[in-house]
Amino acid sequence: MAGGGSAQGQAALSELIAGDSIRIGEHARDWRAAVRVCGEALVASGATDPAYTDEMIATVEQLGPYIVIAPGIALAHSRPSPAVHRAGVSLVTLATPVEFGHRQNDPVTLVVGLAALDDEGHVTALATLAEFLADEGRRTALLAAPNPEAVRRLIADYEGGRAT
Amino acid sequence: MKILAVCGMGLGTGLLLRMQAEKALRELGIQADLEVADIGTARALASSADLILTSQELAPQLGKVTPKIVTISNFIDLREMVDKLRAAME
User: Fold this and answer.
1) What ipTM was predicted for this assembly?
2) Distance, in angstroms, between B85 CA and closest chain A CA?
């Protein structure tokens, strides 16, 4: 646990959204459907098996809508499991917001999917994502992005700007 | 002092709470140990903490615990974290 070097390392957010992991303007009729799209994007990017999608849905069924971390934003995730092949992040924007049942932060327009191999390998990426989303201008730009490439560019630009 | 950040799975929202709390404590000039725990292990660890940070949704699931519980509704808003930690420390 301690030390461990950087075998898994601290991947950057842009590395964890590699592959086919971004969906823009999706139509979901409820929160389950929205989380499902998020899970499918993780599967498409090679991070998880479909079983992980069910695990993310089960998390909300068991523990409630606490994954709605800010107004309009849900962080769908579960534990490391055999259905997770590598740490990954998916991003799904919804054409019509959906209710998760959260008292303050509903309705949700952005669902972030997170798959983790352990409790540390995704820390840098999660920190970057939180900082990126904390700014209203960047949040608006992300939600207005017309395609996945535009989202990738926004995130890459943000990471590049922070690195200098 | 010791702060326990409690979330459902131990690696998503709890990590966000820890990161935000680290920044907030720096701003407030307060030294504290921060630990993340999932809801299952949090009850056992609660007695060793001075303060618990969690979401309003999970707080009732902690049951009766000794430390003061601070609930956060926006996990990316540093202002909310700073204000609530400051109020809890007074």
Assistant:
1) 0.94
2) 18
